[in-house]
Amino acid sequence: MLKKLSLTILILSVLTHCTRRHKADNLHYFQDFESIAGWFGMPALSSDIKGHSGNYSMLTNAQLDYSPGLTRKLKEISDKPIKKIRASIWCYTMEKNSNGAFCVQIMNANGENKLWIARPFVDFIKSESTWTKTVIETEIPKDAANPENMVKVFMWNKGTIPVYGDDVEVIFSE
Ligand SMILES: [Ca+2]
């Protein structure tokens, strides 16, 4: 009897946990590039090297200077004010001296920057041909938190050395 009861409690708690996670989806974004490979408008995906996960990652180089990225209005993320962003990415390059950055940006409706954080590749990619993770974690200043403002998370390659990115995760906090 006790066994049956604990099993019921376990199943119930798993179900409750799943429901809660599902509800929080607008605050949590993850992209591993496996299921969007081959789709129209995604030319920057590559399987030249093994991804950090699976076969695909996004490629930036002299021609593909901006990677695919997350683009959302703050009001699409939550009805409540967004107070924090935590964005992480895994990057890979064959040559360490790559010129570019992992970027978090918030722009207003006039295209003016209200928040701009760029983490240079050279600051965190310390070894060649190894996947390396970096995290940008920041509070959103009040004057950047207008619900109509657009948040963007992407890679910007300003040089000629190819840099790959995979498993991008962005978590917003209210
Ligand atoms: Ca992948």
Description:
The protein is α+β, with helices and mostly antiparallel strands and 174 residues long. It has a single domain (27-173), classed as Galactose-binding domain-like (Jelly Rolls), CATH 2.60.120. The protein contains three helices and ten strands; from the N terminus they run H-E-E-E-E-H-E-E-E-H-E-E-E. The chain has helices spanning 2-23, 74-77, 121-124, and strands at 28-31, 45-46, 57-60, 70-73, 84-93, 100-107, 113-120, 132-139, 150-157, 163-173. Strands 1, 2, 3, 5, 8 and 10 form a six-stranded antiparallel beta sheet that branches. It has a four-stranded antiparallel beta sheet with strand order 4-9-6-7. A hairpin with a 5-residue loop joins strand 6 (100-107) and strand 7. It is globular and about 40 Å long.
Number of helices: 3
Strand content: 35-45%
Number of domains: 1
Question: What is Rg?
Answer: 19 Å
Which CATH C-level class is it? Mainly Beta
Mean pLDDT: 87
CATH H-level name... which superfamily? Galactose-binding domain-like
Task: Determine the structural class based on helices, strands and strand pairing.
Answer: alpha+beta
Cα shape: globular
Report, as a whole number of angstroms, the end-to-end distance: 43 Å
Give the distinct bound molecules.
Answer: calcium ion
The poorly predicted ranges are: 7-24
Please estimate the helix content.
Answer: 10-25%
| Name given to the CATH architecture | Sandwich
Short description:
The chain has 174 residues and is an alpha+beta fold.
